[in-house]
Amino acid sequence: MFKKILIANRGEIALRVIRTCKEMGIKTVAVYSTADRDGLHVRFADEAVCIGPPSSAQSYLSIPAIMAAVEITNADAVHPGYGFLAENADFAEICEEYNIKFIGPSANMIRGMGDKVTAKETMIKAGVPVVPGSDGLVKDIAQGKKISADIGYPVIIKATAGGGGKGMRIVEHEEEFESQWNNARNEASASFGNAGVYIEKFVVEPRHIEIQIVGDQHGNVVHLSERDCSIQRRHQKLVEEAPSPFMTKDLRKRMGTAAIEAGKCINYEGVGTVEFLVDKNRDFYFMEMNTRIQVEHPVTEEVIDRDLIKEQIKVAAGHKLGGKNYTPTMHCIECRINAEDPYNDFRPSPGLIEHFHSPKGHGVRVDTHAFAGYTVPPYYDSMIAKLICKAQTREECITKMERALGEFVVEGIKTTIPFHIQLMKNQDFRDGNFNTGFMNTFELE
Questions:
Q1: Domain-located, residue 124
Q2: Which of 2, 281, 375, 404 is deepest in the core (most CB within 10 A)?
Q3: What average pLDDT does this structure show over 262-289?
Q4: Domain at 243, CATH number
């Protein structure tokens, strides 16, 4: 087992990793920008190293600064968390070159799954269902129009290096193809330095359901059931739950098997998530694979009673999986509490938190790095907390979440708490009648 792990991240995920490391008897190193010098992850780690100014590019995305911190603290492993360098193949490769264990998959696995076109080709070879579309990148508008006509509108143009909804445009009719093509490529180039795009059939009214998998260094891959992430805004998840209210026993078996095959075909090591679109007929299609721990991992932890960070660390250290797939035994919902104003188009709301009270009670968990007196910086992701509730049934879980949200007090900044309270009261949500387009018609009162 590792003696000392450096956490190349910040906020709640850095804290989350530190807690598990302490329980496993592993020393921890926090890294921080000058904007995070008062962060809780800095306070609770065994050691802390400042790696630069507030800008992510000069701190949390600076591989030289992080590797210098690894060297001066003699850490023997790096946990990247999510975001920042978590899916950066170059970083994983550099760690390997210097005999530092990157707690995650290899650089080749990250590259293979990070490029959407390559990932899709790999899934086809593995027999995993994929959305009909172009065979690789589309070279020009004429080819794009022909492919779109062949598979039928609506289609979606996607950046091959994309993520977070960037470089993605839906085309309803041929007349708007050229303008949407240009918009997607320009945004992709600006966001990722890569204007390459591909085309897929746009699945109407889909669910976004993902399967959590874990693979070890001995060729074993298991799945830990599903999460429903269909409540999202501009391709950013807002609420996640397990099990999915749309799931059936047969669908879970088929999707779980497909996810395991996806992992086995690349000899996957670590925790990962295979994401699918599921249409109204419960036909599912591979969308992408995330080669890291995800924001919503506590949802799975609560319904199967396993510490996924611990599993991740054990696999990285060479431990063998038990070979068991899991089925949810409880119901769990996670609400992302963001420093955003839901009444003002979810505009970011950084600033000083004057008062902070997190909810308590049976089946209520809050993962957060925020506290009274903490200043939410404007430089990073706006999420300040995750409220996670579990209960025996979905109805009980929603009721518990509504109660907990009403008990959650954050003063001094705007948050998404009012949005989540209204969502829990919404009848369509309570009935499980929603898809990825839900937020297009949802109106805050």
A1: no
A2: 404
A3: 95
A4: 3.30.470.20
Residue 55 predicted with pLDDT over 80: yes
CATH code for position 94: 3.40.50.20
Q: Considering the domain boundaries, does residue 301 fall inside one?
A: yes
Q: Give the pLDDT confidence of 207-256 residue by residue, as tens digits.
A: 999 999 999 999 999 999 999 999 999 889 999 999 999 999 999 999 99
Would the pTM of this model clear 0.70, i.e. be above it?
yes
The predicted structure's pLDDT at residue 120: 87
Pick from 210, 220, 234: which is nearest to 347 by CA? 234
CA atoms within 13 A on the CB side of 24: 23
Q: What pLDDT is attached to residue 139?
A: 95
For 121-263, list the strands marked E by DSSP: 155-159, 168-171, 197-201, 207-215, 221-233, 236-242
Q: Which of 103, 120, 155 delimits the end of a domain?
A: 103
How far apart are alpha carbons 399 and 389 in whole angstroms?
Answer: 10
- Tokens 């990793």: give the residue: 17
| Residue listed under structure tokens 């979810």 | 346
> How buried is residue 228: exposed, middle or buried, by Cβ count under 10 Å (0-12/13-18/19+)?
buried
> What domain range includes position 56?
4-103
| Residue 100 to residue 106: CA distance in whole angstroms | 12
Contact of 185 with 149, CB cutoff 8 Å: no
**Residue in the structure block whose two tokens are 């249409």:** 279
Domain count, the chain: 3
The question of whether 292 is a catalytic residue gets the answer yes
pLDDT at 148: 97
* Cα separation, 222 vs 225, whole angstroms: 9
- Is the Cβ–Cβ distance between 300 and 327 less than 8 Å? no
> Which sign, positive or negative, has the C-alpha torsion 135, 138, 143, 145?
positive
Q: Is 197 exposed, middle or buried (0-12, 13-18, 19+ CB in 10 A)?
A: buried
Given the residues 252, 292, 336, 365, select the one marked as catalytic: 292
* 114 domain-assigned: no
266 and 326 assigned to the same domain? yes
- DSSP line for 273-332: EEEEEE-TTS-EEEEEEE-S--TTHHHHHHHHT--HHHHHHHHHTTPPP-------SSEE
- Does residue 296 sit within a domain? yes
In this structure, the answer to whether residues 344 and 304 fall within a common structural domain is: yes
How far is 233 from 434, CA to CA, in rounded Å? 13
Q: Check whether 164 has a pLDDT greater than 80.
A: no
Place of tokens 């904007």: 35
